[in-house]
Amino acid sequence: MNDYGLKTEVDGIFGPKTDRNVRQYQQDKGLVVDGIVGMYTWVAIYAEHQPPADDNELPARLKNLMAIAPEHQFILREGSKRIEVELLQWTLNEYGLNTSVDGIFGPETNRNVRQYQADKGLKVDGIVGVNTWAALYGEY
Questions:
Q1: What pTM was computed for the model?
Q2: Is 85:77 a contact under the CB 8 Å cutoff?
Q3: In this structure, are residues 49 and 64 in contact, taking their beta carbons and an 8 Å threshold?
Q4: With 60 as the cut, is the pLDDT of residue 32 above it?
Q5: Can you give the three-state secondary structure of the chain, one letter per residue?
Q6: Distance between CA atoms of residues 116 and 113, nearest Å
Q7: How confident is the model over 86-133, as pLDDT tens digits?
């Protein structure tokens, strides 16, 4: 909200001022004005971000996904096809598990997710949920 020009205290509390600013932002962007930061509001907020200058880092379009808390990330499994799968694949590569970064959660990604889960002492089910996302975030 501050980057957009709506002065908001960064204190981790979604209080009346934050609610007012979210509603103003939603109105400015032509969104449903309900004060709830849901999918469409998040998409608009992420579109505000500028890409980082360092090309050796995680690509900006994936880096913005890292701002989403693990408990709000999409649950991924074999067959998933979305940008979050690219983030998963990129992170698996950084961890040392050679994975094609194509946004498609296929057998190779499934195998590497299971290996990663085993390495981290997580439930080995090939499903990227909250606990696996939290561990993956720790890699970056």
A1: 0.59
A2: no
A3: yes
A4: yes
A5: CCCCCCCCCCCCCCCHHHHHHHHHHHHHCCCCCCCCCCHHHHHHHHHHCCCCCCCCCCCHHHHHHHHCCHHHCCCECCCCECHHHHHHHHHHHHHCCCCCCCCECCHHHHHHHHHHHHHCCCCCCCCECHHHHHHHHHHC
A6: 5
A7: 999 999 998 899 999 999 999 999 999 999 999 999 999 999 999 999
